């Protein structure tokens, strides 16, 4: 049994769960990053950003950190800050899942709230403005996760883990917000010689890959209208990009919960939706991995609550049935592939 001195020492070495298999030998695996401390992959990059800031003198002992967050990065920064003796102020809004805000409060974070737009979408632009102003006023360190190289650098370990666990990864699929998790992991994989194809997923209404702006309820992924896309969205590391509606993303998450007992976040549901929809499109024998960015337990009051979904008109039973049919189709393909081939019949001369 391993005994560690700090919770951050438990970051990494997260397990893989096979979600689906096809008759062509392709398998879909979930990298369960919610098994990290704070329940998210974002703790990897939060730690790295702090380490790099300490190393180059931007963050001094006993210092103050200020960052806008939709929750997961904030929880990662909160953990590292309390372990290393820093104060942390998170600039947040009510678009974030309530469970994430409660986690931040539980770890002693000072929360500064900004108002959401009248359409109910995220206040990403306003949060960023307020955080920059507060950091300047307080003389605090502002990581700026969208443009901080430590964000992408924090996923070098994830790339190494995947190669150690699997040997090869043919396709990596992930929801994209800051871009660090997908682009950083792909960069690490390719630096090690892998020829992994990368698939970015963002909500319908997000503008990262040029879609029209609109309202979306997936938290932690995408960028709303007017938000400047940061340097961690490295388009040279993205082969394909897909938009997923709230209804489809939440359907993906809810069906996975009912089939496996594993709860994933809504944005991961979107990545799973894309993976299931395209699984037959990949070459036979492919290993396809979805990064599960965070735990679904953070969304019991939203993604997994029928009333919340109905209020926002994103509870779609047909979408859930489509996801179920994909599972049924892939299971049937495995049974068909396993049938013995009929013996050839000799034809007399």
UniProtKB/TrEMBL annotation:
Its cofactor is pyridoxal 5'-phosphate. Keywords: Pyridoxal phosphate. It comes from Kibdelosporangium phytohabitans. It holds the Pfam family PALP. Coiled coil: none annotated. The keyword Protein biosynthesis does not apply. It comes from the Bacteria. The keyword Lipid metabolism does not apply. GO terms for biological process: alpha-amino acid metabolic process. Residues 8-292 form the Tryptophan synthase beta chain-like PALP domain. SUPFAM superfamilies: Tryptophan synthase beta subunit-like PLP-dependent enzymes. This is Cysteine synthase. InterPro entries: Cys_Synth/Cystath_Beta-Synth (IPR050214), TrpB-like_PALP (IPR001926), TrpB-like_PALP_sf (IPR036052).
């Amino acid at each position: 049994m391993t005994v560690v001195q700090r919770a951050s020492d438990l970051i990494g070495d997260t397990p893989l769960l096979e979600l689906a298999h096809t008759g062509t030998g392709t398998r879909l695996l979930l990298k369960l990053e919610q098994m990290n401390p704070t329940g998210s992959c974002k703790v990897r990059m939060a730690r790295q950003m702090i380490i790099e800031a300490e190393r180059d003198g931007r963050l001094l002992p006993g210092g103050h950190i200020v960052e806008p967050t939709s929750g997961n990065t904030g929880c990662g920064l909160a953990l590292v800050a309390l372990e290393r003796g820093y104060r942390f102020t998170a600039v947040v809004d009510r678009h974030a899942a309530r469970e994430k805000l409660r986690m931040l409060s539980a770890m002693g974070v000072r929360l500064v709230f900004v108002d959401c737009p009248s359409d109910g979408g995220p206040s990403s632009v306003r949060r960023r403005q307020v955080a920059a102003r507060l950091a300047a006023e307080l003389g605090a360190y502002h990581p700026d996760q969208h443009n901080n190289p430590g964000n992408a650098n924090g996923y070098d370990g994830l790339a190494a883990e995947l190669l150690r666990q699997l040997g090869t990864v043919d396709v990596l699929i992930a929801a994209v917000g800051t871009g660090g998790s997908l682009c950083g992991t792909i960069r690490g994989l390719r630096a090690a010689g892998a020829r992994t194809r990368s698939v970015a997923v963002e909500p319908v209404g997000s503008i990262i890959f040029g879609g029209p702006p609109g309202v979306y309820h997936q938290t932690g992924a995408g960028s709303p209208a007017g938000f400047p896309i940061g340097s961690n969205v490295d388009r040279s590391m993205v082969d394909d990009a897909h938009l997923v509606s709230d209804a489809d993303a939440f359907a993906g998450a809810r069906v996975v919960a009912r089939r496996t007992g594993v709860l994933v976040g809504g944005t991961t549901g979107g990545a799973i939706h894309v993976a299931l929809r395209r699984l037959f499109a990949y070459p036979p024998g492919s290993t396809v991995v979805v990064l599960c960015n965070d735990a679904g337990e953070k969304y019991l009051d939203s993604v997994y609550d029928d009333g919340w979904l109905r209020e926002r008109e994103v509870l779609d039973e047909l979408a859930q049935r489509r996801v179920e049919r994909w599972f049924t189709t892939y299971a049937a393909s495995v049974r068909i592939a396993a049938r013995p081939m009929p013996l050839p019949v000799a034809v007399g001369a």
